[in-house]
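Curious: explain these tokens?
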Amino acid sequence: MAQTLQFGNQTIIAAELLPMLAGYQMLPQLCRFLIIDQAIASIELTPEEKTSTIEQFYQNYQITTKETKASALKQNAMNEAQLETAATRELRIEKFKQATWGQKLESYFLQHKSQLDKVIYSLIRTSDAEVAQELYFRIKAGEQSFAECAKIYSQGAEAQTGGMLGPVPISQPHQIIAQKLAISQPGQLWPPMRLDEWIVIVRMEKLIPAQLDAAMRSTLLNHLFDNWLSEEMSKRELTIFEEEYIRQNTPVRIKNVGDSDPPLIVHAVT
């Protein structure tokens, strides 16, 4: 039996849902959840993990009584099993990340460490090459501080901080600046160089080496997970079939992405 969604005084039949989801650009998010749920289907939680996670979820959303649980279920059009699945999804995702990439983090970190290091650097940018050259010689000779020159002459937002920027990942600045910073010693001042419409003066202030601590592990796991999810999304083609097509045809594989990784085929019954 077809279901109908009632929201306030608006009634939405099942046949209207897919076009609405597409119109609100929600289908890609739905597909991401489908991929994630396929991936974490085999991830198991201990009874203790499941209980504590659900309890914490209920506390976070102030589901503390039978009445508030009933209200949450009604508001989200869920049954209790679906609510518990939602409550434990994040933990199962975290366990999936650990199981998939946890043992590879150290080698991945070492391979990309040069891009993960952070720097603090000073910057002056101006559109006038002669001004840039004069400022460079003043700073180099100690006639005027970098911060003072930046506050007076720099034409970017860095003027507000005396030219100081960071800490930021060393790969974040413009590629040419990043290359200079990568081979700089603290305090090293670089002559004016042209970047697009600007002439810039750069000084390396401090290098902050990346460490594989808990925060970095979490960052790398999230990065690897996001890359994996993007790759999975790109492998699978989203197709909506009309009712007449479903009656006359058997849905077929859209892209061969492996026997253990079926395509996502969404049928529109209209």
